Amino acid sequence: MDTEGTFDPRSTRHNPLPPPPPQSPPSFPTAPPPVPPTAPPAAPGAPVPAQAPGAPPAPGPAARPSFVAWLRAPRSEAAPGVWTYEHKPKAPEEPDRIPGRRLLSGALISLLCGWLVWSLLWNGYLGGYWLWPMYLLTPDSWYERGGNTQAGWWAQRIYIGIVLVGLAVIFGRVGHWSEVWARYVAPLFRRAWDEPAPEAAVAMRPEGDPLEWPHLRAAGAHSAADRLAADARAGAMNDVDHARIERAWQSVRAGRYSLASFTDTVLRHGAASYGHPSGARDLPVRTARHDLLAHQVRLGTASDDPRNPYQHRGVGLALEPDVLATSLLAVGPPGSGKTGRMVRPVVESLCLQALAGQVAVVAVGAAGAGLGADEAFDVVVKIGRPDSGYDFDLYGGTTDPDEAAGILAEALIGDMAASLPGGDSRRAATALAQLLGPYRAAHGRFPSVPDLRELLDGSKTAVNALREALDAAGERAQARELEARVRQSGAPGDVGTLLADRIALLDRPAFADFFDTTGDRRPFSLRALEHPLRVRIDLPERGHAEASRMLARLVLAQFTECAVGRADRSLFACLVLDDASHTITPEALRGIQRLRSAHAGAVLTLRTLDDVPEALRSALLGAVGCRMACAGVTTWDGARFAEVWGTEWVETRDVTDRQIIAEEPLTKVLHFIRKVVTGKAVTTQSVTVRTVERERWSASELAHAVPAGHAVLSVTSVRGEGGPPVLVDLRG
């Protein structure tokens, strides 16, 4: 069969991946392509070129530092989900720490009080009694009537100094001057005297200046390091280039490339070495803050809220493949920021890492969902639209009829499998396999949607034609499979009728040009996850809601099957499903749980957990390692999150006011006067400190105490390191 113009992921070589016409098809080369004679990409922080007249305004990303400053910025070890770029760990919490405002005001008041006391002493308003100790301890001859002797003059000055020191000690202790010095004054001197210049600080690092590529020099690739350092200083390198070359160097370390070939490639192409097959070295527009050295994208800032752990307050929160590999579920009503403030930055980050050869990403959403521009992806499948440059493989690129039948059955009736006999989709998969196997044996391909619908309907013309083709091909075993399907067709409880009704949703005029199996179009298959691809699939939401849900289940089933079945799992594969409503089934949950061990993950969003069958809601929250509750969730959804986040031990203080009953007459008079002045009876407070177990976040707090533009996020890494639920401001 002629395969020109198709994408075959099963080949051992990188075959052409034809983009939509009229663009020229890029390739997957085994060696870097020659550098085109164009200007180098802008380094981080460079000005963005002006848009063409009439073009819609692009969202303005935050100002990025220069590439050299970004590369040299410190990154400290932190808990999962913490933005490590220029992160400084906070000092241990001090429960008795005085707030800064109260500390400074107390120090100022004590200074003024000490100054007042000294002024009263010096000007004699308090008499000369404060000088008596000096006169008692020194001879009277030192103080003559005509004037003091030299010894008396020195005695007075020393005594005055001792009094000043005593006042400073007393009022300094009252005003906590030592803490003011340690907290505010000493760091200023330390920063001015002890901190070296930025260049000197980089040179003093144990690993050396990262701009000089010390790990390449340590391995003997001095010429390659010199070329890369020169490109970086000349502004010809950006963060994507750095991440891509680091990926290639890791391949050298792993033995897939030789050091000689790596050095030769770098000397010839410099920062453009080992380019992405598309030729792109950056995205057209960035709307979020990325750190490709740490593989992170910043989502926001943890609020300075008492419900947040002390170490997380005020720090940046981010997502990376290390936590996305445990999968993420975000729940929130429309407008809560799931797509614009979480899904879009994550897709953008994964696309950047795909350009660096580290990730394969598949983003699925409704048309116009805002997952990114067409130019930011290698493959854009617009199902139901005539301008789509790619078709979608309904069978996931497999040649096994049983595997194809299982995936297709999950897509067609996975949401209603619990109501079928047996409680799952196995009978439906068997019925499909009894048709897919014979059809492939007879025609060398799987049936198209109209052909499959006719066979499921039991059309005598279609069945007889398939029977004759099997007899001509001598496929007796497959003929027996077909006869078994014919005998079951029309019997009470036959699942074929239901399958025919469901496949009819895809046999519509809007989808007439899609799901073609004859090879006339460019079918895209998720078997391509072994390549660093950027894929976006637009679902036909408007007017075809049920078909969109089926296709979403189909993509999810194919992704879990293909990601787990990859031979090379060095690339992180991620599926981003912008709306996972009615796609979560028992089989989908089992597939999501398998992704973690296959270096893959899924990002799912829901408007509410009611879009998931009730029996699967707790299982879904348990299957994912990252959970996100956006502002506006209901108390019912909040109760599920509160249950999965569990409880913690906290210290509570109960303050009780008790009225004092005076017995003495003078005390009664004083209490009466105080009550007249303050309007309150004289009371005493008793404080009871207890340690109790409470929910980290209650259902009521999640439903009513999360401000707009915020979310509560918890993450877990693939190594099992878990983070607490943190209230994060998605706008900062």
UniProtKB/TrEMBL annotation:
Domain of life: Bacteria
Compositional bias of kind Pro residues: 16-47
Region annotated Disordered, chain positions: 1-61
Spans through the membrane: 107-132, 152-174
Cytoplasm listed as a keyword: no
Gene3D superfamilies: P-loop containing nucleotide triphosphate hydrolases
Keywords of the record: Membrane, Transmembrane, Transmembrane helix
Name of this chain's protein: ATP-binding protein
Organism: Streptomyces mordarskii
